[in-house]
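It is worth pausing here to work through a concrete case rather than discussing structure prediction in the abstract. The textbook approach is simple: state the sequence, then state the predicted structure, then interpret. We follow exactly that order.
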Amino acid sequence: MHLANEIVMTHVLAFADTAHAAAEHAQTSVLLRGYLIAWLFWLGVSLGGLALTWLHHLTGGKWGRAIRLELTAAGQTLPLLAIGVIPILMNIPALYEWARPEVVAHDALLQKKVGWLNPTFFTIRSIAYFVIWIGLGTWIIRLRRKAQANPTFENEHSMRFFSAMAIVAYGLSITLAAVDYSMSLEPHWYSGIYGVIYMVSEALAALSFAVAVASLRSPAKDPAPFAKRDLGNLLLAFTMLWTYMNLSQFLIIWMGDLPEENVWYLHRLNGGWMWLAMVLIFCGFAAPFMTLLSTAVKENRKVLGFVAFWVVILRWFDIVWNVEPAFSKFDPAAMTSHAVVAAAMGAAWLVVFLWRRSALKNEFPYEPTVAVEGHH
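Step two, the predicted structure:
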């Protein structure tokens, strides 16, 4: 009897240890997923700031002069996010099934993709992405300062030519990065326009963030006139473009009706995730679309800032909808944890952003001369 009790107690303790280990693993997994979501969100704001800065150097316009301080400062937070990728690189197998040998060994398709999807090459690509992004961001600042000190046509042309090349490099690199960090969470699925959707989403995130922050300034402290209508129209345009690209992807996959493609949407329209899809449709598109159609809204600085802040929040929900269904069904506790992680990372990001924004104030405004503008 005593021996039987010992055997039972041994099994109970073993089960308790196993359950405790499983609980700890589940909690770690939730934190890692929340970290990836937060990192992708803030990375989008930073890269989108860089891309819009390059775009403004190419096109000019009042909209860019109104928020270039915020866009430039956002782009200069990339070194923080380069450090932030380290926890992801240290936990690749916990996030990506293609990095687990026991999974790859029984999956013929993953075996064909192992040349690209392997932890070593994934790490090398991550380093390369940040070298490219930070390098491009640093170089455009040098060219801008040179053009500011000596505003000749040659200097302006160099800055614009570099911006065009930088946008091309950004487009190629962010397409690969979107595949690596997000699409490969479900490595059997693929989409030809996934990288483009990420580019548009990052531009929308950065634009809305910059408008929201700039709207908090008093008009007397604006480095350039706050072009409310232009910024409102641009927000509307990017909102429509983001919706169009997502709808295009959905329709292409729906019409193709292939199981290996449908599965991505099945995961995001079931398991309790349909509500978030509806939030993105009605709150991420319909609400800002209908609001920004109003001239009165676009002429009111504070209201426009509120709409922009609303769009920023919905960008985080969009990242959640892209990432979390690859791991689990909807879980309110996990969503709360993800929000806390995003806020914590955001606090660190905002410290760097505000520091760079303060340091850059003396460099703005920079208005191209009339003679240079005439060379368009």
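Step three, interpretation. The CA atoms of residues 99 and 119 lie 6 Å apart. The two ends are 95 Å apart (CA to CA).
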